[in-house]
Amino acid sequence: MKPSDSPEMAPEMIDFIFLMHNDSAPAAGESGDDGWGAYIQKLKAMGRFDGGSSIGGGVCVNQAGTRVEVSAHIVGFITVKAESLQEARELLIGNPVYEAGGTVEIRELPRT
Hints:
Order of helices and strands: EHEEHHE
Number of domains: 1
Largest sheet: 4 strands, antiparallel
Number of strands: 4
Strand content: 25-35%
CATH superfamily: Dimeric alpha+beta barrel
Structural class: alpha+beta
C-alpha cells in the first residue's frame, strides 16, 4: 500500500484571509513590532502562515468613473491554511489586533 492510499491521510487545508481592522486600542502595528514577530513565527512553526502585509493607501476604480471611498478601516491582512473555519478562528490567538480587542474579519479563499 502506498502512503497516498492510507485511510489516515491529512485533511485538505482550506485557505483563509484575516483582514485586520483599525478599531483596536491601542492601534496594533502602528509603532514598533507590537507582537507581530512572535505571532507570525508561531503561525510559521505550525505550518499555517501563507503570507501577509500591512495595507497602505489606494483608490477604488470602476468603468463608470464614479467615486467610491477606499475601505480605510482595513489596515492589514494575513493568509493562513486551516482545516476549518473553527481552526482558523483558533489561529487568532496571539494576533495583536485581536488581542487588543480589535476586529479581525476571517474569510475563506475558495479555490477555483
